[in-house]
Design brief:
With about 350 residues, this protein is mainly alpha-helical. It has helices at about 20-45, 45-70, 80-90, 100-115, 125-135, 140, 175-180, 200-205, 215-225, 235-250, 255-265, 270-275, 290-310, 315-330, 340-350. Helix 9 runs parallel beside helix 12 (about 270-275). The longest helix has 23 residues, at about 20-45. The radius of gyration is 22 Å and the shape is globular.
Length: about 350
């Protein structure tokens, strides 16, 4: 009997085959990001889609430009630049000028990603780092508008001069802005103040970045990623759970602990950061215990920054700090090699 030699070809270890690859994983993330994008269009109008498209096109363009100039392998087919562009756009207010995501896309792709070797070699999340970099233009990336805008209230492509926005469109304060003062978003601070009820915060009918407002929709997107096994539960649960526990134990302003906790968990970028940014493969730990510690420390830092920092939402800063600590977590929290004694294993880890 003649054997087909092609069936017995063996490559180098590891001898594992899987249907998932970078492209399929990024495709699932894009599908999940469509959930909050739809809600962004619903609450803030079609300009949210324009802003996202500009950010995505910029990231794809700068990735193609860099790989061509540097004569590196083209990586546009892995869809990672599209994911970076979508995440960056969804962290911006809808009134942001359209040239802002272009600058952010260039910084995310060229500086944070490609200069460190490309996908898988960057130690910081590109979209999140670019969002922090864009705070160099504070008045342009912190101009929050009210949700449920009237049709045609914001132009699709033209920049929006701040002075042309009517008071009916500008949100004087976000839910987290109120909580920074120790006041629940559902309590009026004075005449004309916007009151954000708990239902508004959960559904997304509040002022904020276009992709971070609807906690329930982001939770649905996270469940999709969990079902598709793109992410695991460890980081999102430990991240959100730590914030929930700390805000319940230490409410501010004499508010009811459970109500303060619910507003704290559902407001700002906590759900979005826990689902889409803290779980980034490259910048998060690889072990289950490491992920739990990583998520918990992100939660601790988020609460500390919200309570004592200058910024009202500490999610992005907390994740970036923990990005820098990921290597340290992986160094000291790792699975024991089979057949190695625990004492000897610890000694090897300490001597490295």
């Amino acid at each position: 009997m003649r054997l087909d030699n092609k069936r017995f070809l063996m490559s180098g270890a590891p001898h594992i085959r899987a249907e998932e690859n970078t492209r399929s994983i990024m495709a699932d993330v894009i599908i999940a990001l469509i959930f909050p994008l739809i809600m962004a269009v619903y609450f803030f109008g079609w300009r949210a889609l324009t802003l996202t498209a500009m950010s995505v096109l910029s990231c794809v363009f700068f990735e193609r430009l860099y790989t061509r100039i540097a004569k590196k392998e083209k990586t546009g087919g892995d869809l990672s630049a599209i994911v970076t562009g979508m995440i960056l756009a969804l962290t911006l207010p809808v009134a942001t000028p359209l040239w802002i995501p272009i600058i952010g896309g260039a910084f995310a792709i060229i500086v944070v990603k490609q200069l460190y070797g490309g996908l898988g070699k960057n130690f910081l999340n590109p979209a999140l780092t670019a969002r922090v970099f864009l705070l160099s233009f504070p008045s342009l990336v912190t101009l929050y508008t009210k949700p449920s805008l009237p049709a045609g209230s914001l132009p699709l492509f033209a920049d929006i001069p701040t002075e042309t926005l009517s008071p009916e469109l500008i949100a004087s304060i976000t839910p987290l802005g109120k909580m920074k003062l120790g006041i629940l978003p559902g309590i009026a601070m004075g005449s004309g103040d916007v009151v954000w009820g708990l239902r508004d915060v959960v559904v997304g009918n509040v002022a904020g970045a276009i992709g971070e407002v609807s906690a329930v929709v982001i939770a649905a997107a996270a469940i999709y990623l969990l079902v598709r096994r793109v992410i695991t539960w460890h980081i999102p649960v430990s991240f959100v759970g730590t914030v929930a526990v700390l805000t319940f134990l230490f409410p501010r302003g004499g508010n009811a602990p459970w109500l303060w906790m619910l507003y704290s968990v559902c407001s700002g970028g906590l759900f979005f950061g826990a689902a889409f940014m803290a779980t980034d493969y490259t910048t998060s730990p690889v072990t289950s215990r490491g992920k739990l510690l990583y998520g918990a420390l992100c939660g601790v830092l988020t609460v500390l920054i919200r309570y004592f920092g200058a910024h009202e939402d500490g999610v992005m800063y907390a994740i970036l700090v923990m990005n820098c600590a990921t290597a340290l977590v992986d160094r000291y929290i790792r699975p024991r090699r089979f057949g190695v004694r625990i004492k000897k294993y610890k000694e090897e880890a300490e001597n490295e």
